[in-house]
C-alpha cells in the first residue's frame, strides 16, 4: 500500500507538468495570433527578436561551420589544381627558355662565323658539324657538305677563331675533317711577329700543338701568334693557327721545346667554314 501511495504523487506531478506545458503552449499560440492582428504588439515582437538573436546565432553555428569547412575544402582543391597547373607551365617555360638561350648562343656563333668570313678574301661555305670521331686518339669531325657542294680532299676548314683542319675524305653529302691537333697532322706556320717559319704538329691532345725543329737560339716567345705560312700550297697564307704558350730550352740540346694552344675551338665549334681559295676556283 505504501508503494502505491509513493507512485501516485509521481504520476500526479507528471500530469501537472504536462498541463502547464499545454497551458504555456496555448498561451504562446494565442499571443502569436493576437500579435499578428494587433499593432501595439509590434514593439514587443521587436524586443523579442533582439533577445532571440543570440539564440539564432548559436543555432546557426553548425551550419556556418559546415559551410566554412566546405569552402575551405573547395579552396584547397582549387589551390592544389592551380599549383599543379603553374608547375607544369613553369616546366614548359623553362624548357622553352633553354631552347631560346641555345638559339641565341647559336646566333652569336653564326655572327662571329660570318664576321670571320668577311675578313678573308677566299670564298667560303658554311658547314655544320654532324659527328665526331668515337676514337679519342683520332681528332676528326664529319660535316654536312660533300662533293655535291664542291668539297674536295685537302680543303682547309676554319671556324670563327682560326684554322680547324683539312678535309681528308669526301662523300656526296658529307666530308671528314682531320683536326690540326691530330697526331697525324702537320702544317707549315710562321710567327706573325718576326716571320719565323716552323712546322706545327698535332700532339694528340685537343688543346696543344708542338713546333718541331726550332733552334734553341731562335727568337720565339710566349704569346707569339702562329699563322699559316702558305708553303706547300695546301693552306692559304695568314690564317691564325695557334698561340705560343710555352718555350723550354735545355742547354744540352740544340732544339727548343715549343708548345702552342690552337686558336680554333676544336672541341666546341658547331658551324665551320670550308675555304675555297682563288687558286682552287681557277682550277
Proportion in β-strands: 25-35%
The arrangement of helices and strands along the chain is HHEEEEEEEEEEEEH
Decide which structural class fits the backbone.
Answer: alpha+beta
| Contiguous uncertain segments of 5+ residues | 1-12, 279-283
Structure description:
The chain is of the alpha+beta class. Helix content is 42%, strand content 27%. The protein has helices spanning 2-37, 42-119, 278-282; strands at residues 123-132, 140-143, 156-158, 163-170, 175-179, 186-191, 197-202, 209-215, 225-228, 240-248, 255-262, 271-276. The chain has a six-stranded antiparallel beta barrel with strand order 1-2-5-4-3-12.
Secondary-structure map:
Layout: H1 2-37, H2 42-119, E1 123-132, E2 140-143, E3 156-158, E4 163-170, E5 175-179, E6 186-191, E7 197-202, E8 209-215, E9 225-228, E10 240-248, E11 255-262, E12 271-276, H3 278-282
Antiparallel strand pairs: 1-2, 1-12, 2-5, 3-4, 3-12, 4-5, 6-7, 6-9, 7-8, 8-11, 9-10, 10-11
Task: State the gist of this model.
The chain is built from three helices and twelve strands; from the N terminus they run H-H-E-E-E-E-E-E-E-E-E-E-E-E-H.
Features of this protein?
elongated, 3 helices, six-stranded antiparallel β-barrel, 283 residues, alpha+beta, 12 strands
Amino acid at each position: 500500500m505504501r508503494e502505491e501511495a509513493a507512485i501516485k504523487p509521481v504520476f500526479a506531478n507528471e500530469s501537472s507538468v504536462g498541463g502547464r506545458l499545454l497551458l504555456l503552449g496555448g498561451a504562446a499560440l494565442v499571443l502569436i495570433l493576437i500579435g499578428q492582428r494587433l499593432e501595439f504588439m509590434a514593439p514587443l515582437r521587436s524586443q523579442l527578436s533582439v533577445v532571440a538573436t543570440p539564440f539564432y546565432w548559436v543555432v546557426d553555428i553548425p551550419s556556418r561551420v559546415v559551410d566554412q569547412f566546405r569552402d575551405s575544402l573547395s579552396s584547397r582543391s582549387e589551390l592544389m589544381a592551380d599549383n599543379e597547373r603553374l608547375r607544369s607551365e613553369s616546366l614548359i617555360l623553362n624548357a622553352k627558355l633553354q631552347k631560346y638561350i641555345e638559339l641565341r648562343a647559336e646566333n652569336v656563333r653564326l655572327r662571329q662565323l660570318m664576321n670571320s668570313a668577311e675578313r678573308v678574301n677566299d670564298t667560303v661555305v658554311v658547314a655544320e658539324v654532324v659527328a665526331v670521331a668515337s676514337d679519342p686518339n683520332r681528332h676528326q669531325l664529319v660535316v654536312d657538305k660533300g662533293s655535291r657542294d664542291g668539297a674536295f680532299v685537302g680543303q682547309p676548314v676554319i671556324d670563327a677563331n682560326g684554322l680547324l683542319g683539312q678535309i681528308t675524305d669526301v662523300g656526296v653529302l658529307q666530308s671528314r675533317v682531320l683536326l690540326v691537333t691530330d697526331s697525324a697532322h702537320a702544317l707549315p706556320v710562321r710567327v706573325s711577329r718576326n716571320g719565323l717559319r716552323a712546322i706545327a704538329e698535332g700532339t694528340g691532345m685537343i688543346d696543344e700543338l708542338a713546333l718541331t725543329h726550332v733552334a734553341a737560339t731562335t727568337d720565339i716567345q710566349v704569346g707569339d701568334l702562329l699563322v699559316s705560312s702558305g708553303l706547300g700550297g695546301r693552306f692559304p697564307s695568314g690564317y691564325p693557327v695557334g698561340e705560343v704558350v710555352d718555350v723550354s730550352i735545355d742547354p744540352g740540346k740544340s732544339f727548343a721545346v715549343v708548345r702552342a694552344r690552337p686558336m680554333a675551338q676544336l672541341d666546341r665549334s658547331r658551324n665551320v667554314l670550308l675555304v675555297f681559295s682563288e687558286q682552287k676556283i681557277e682550277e
